[in-house]
Give the backbone structure.
Amino acid sequence: MDRRGFIKRSFFAMGSLAAIKLLENPLMAHDMDTVSADKTQTEMKRIMIIDGGPRRNMNTAQMLQKFAEGAKSVGNDVEVKTVRLYDMDYKGCMSCMACKLKGKASNVCRFRDALSPVLDEIAQADGLVLGSPIYFGEVTGQMRAFLERLSFPWLSYNDYSMTAPKRMPVVLIETMNGMPERNNSNGFGTMEGCITRVLGEPQHIVAYNTCQVKDYSRYELGGFSEEAKHQWRDAHWEEDLQKAYDAGRQMASQSTF
Ligand SMILES: Cc1cc2nc3c(=O)[nH]c(=O)nc-3n(C[C@H](O)[C@H](O)[C@H](O)COP(=O)(O)O)c2cc1C
């Protein structure tokens, strides 16, 4: 089993353990005041794209842009919104516990800052796309902070169940220096377990061996062969972008919204 599979299985094992605990002690079960989606509000399909990379127009941003193009190509009834986390001033989970207040528990974060409207929009969206470069084997710090705010309110400490206002298709996009056969990426790590349980099994798109800079000769990057990087890019980059585009089309075309 690979590392990603191990993390995922451990997460599910944790969930089962919690369920057993609950069965042993039914008094722990307590209804959560969940926010439910307003399905009748509009026929428009709304897809939220969250860009967890700092660089405009570089690998991650280009992949997400292609996804957006693919989704929009389906028709006018698809609304696609891209949010750049690095342009926003927000915090990770502040442990304010407002989402777990007695009688006022909520499965959408109650802490108010610049991220609040984004989390509110995701709660009612029809599809979610998360993109991040891989930093030290994980998604970026901004993406992780965002995921804390997204996921902690899903979790009930009464019965360890996890619920979002609605389930939706999810696509996770990673870009990295690593190669398919040799990389250090945990990707979205344990947060992927939360997403799978609550929103649904995500689709993965990974762009490997990306060009980190346009001109390698300007930097101390002797560990990389610029020629090999460009060869890889010539052979794979268009295909990677196409995968993102196709995933966008597929998400926007889904009838299960
Ligand atoms: C701080 C930092 C840490 C990185 N760590 C990794 C890593 O652990 N594994 C990897 O494969 N690539 C790593 N990379 C390379 C980036 O993931 C890769 O270049 C990515 O495609 C950059 O995305 P961007 O062009 O959208 O910024 C790192 C880059 C930076 C700046």
